[in-house]
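Fold sample X.
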Amino acid sequence: MRSLLLLLAVAGGAWAQPFSAGVKLGVPLSDFLSATESGDTSYSTITNRYIVGVEGELRLPFGLGIELDVLYRHVNFSSTTTANAISAATSITTANTTSNDWEFPLVAKYKFKAPLVRPYVEAGVAWDTLQGLTQGVKTTVAGIVTSSSSTSSPSELSNSSTRGFVLGAGIDIHALLVHVTPELRYTRWGARQFFAPGLLSSNQNQAEFLVGVTF
């Protein structure tokens, strides 16, 4: 019984600690890129169904708090363009683009009063930046590679960084020394990061399901 009372006391003290940190995992509910084809050129992309990162939260009086996250995802897309060469052979140009995408949301939170499960709402701003962007381009004619190159500034790149505003809602589940916070989050970005007219575009509306685990 004494051990149980001690554990409950420690858990209660952990709830009152002003700062917590931990990991944040999630899945995107919307595609990062929209791709299509037109004429002899086609784009394709696969949304990686994971988001990983870390978070820190400063808890303030009256149910208020400030949270800063560092979130990572991988971005990739490819394009294929076909054309008839002078020799009447078919020329095929393929471009494969990959990048690391880092997102930094900073939100203010309000948690409603409840003993163990506390609903909350949040709002704030976010910054997003691309790192390690690489596009490899290869042209083949009749199955023979005629040229290849790579660049860190592809023609589809509009903005390597952008910012936007964030809205979200979730619940804070306090289990002993751990806070588990599943939430839905919406971000509206101020600018596209990738754009090819009629073929490829970054989605400025972003929806995510995230789960934080902090101590």
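Fold sample Y, listed below.
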Amino acid sequence: MTKNFTSQECEAYANHMMTKYLKQDWEFVWSDKMTNSFGLCCGNYKIKISKKYFDLNSSFPSIIRNVILHEIAHAMQYEDMGYLSHDKHWKKYCLKIGAEPVRCFSRLDVTTPCAAFALRDSFTGKVIKYIQQTNTNITNFLNETNNYIKEVESSYDNPVSLELIWCG
């Protein structure tokens, strides 16, 4: 696991990259309301990042940087072509600035607020499993989770480090 990406570092990175790649003055905005997407490029010259998604993934700066670049590629397309999409032109902008040209991320690529807990690889941020806690006995829940972690870790050829995090 790497050092957590602070909100100030994220904002500084976003502003630096927007200045580097965009022709217009764009504003970086944190959103407390966004829960269905990590980032959003708006036609009113704003790039929004979900505070909830950021908090869940702050241990993985590469994930957050890629989301920011994804949204900047949208902004570049908007400035040059007047529309926002995930078409072949947007993909070219992604490749030009180093973003993955992927429309949206899998729930297993980034930690989302879709469940009570996420069991993830603490080195990559990849989610192994989302867990809804339906069992009210926390001891049983933790024992079951620890057994599952041991089972998953034993199935890997190389050492893996899993972590259980609260997503709610």
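Sample Y note: The radius of gyration is 18 Å.
Also: Residues 7-97 form a domain with the Zincin-like fold (CATH 3.30.2010.10).
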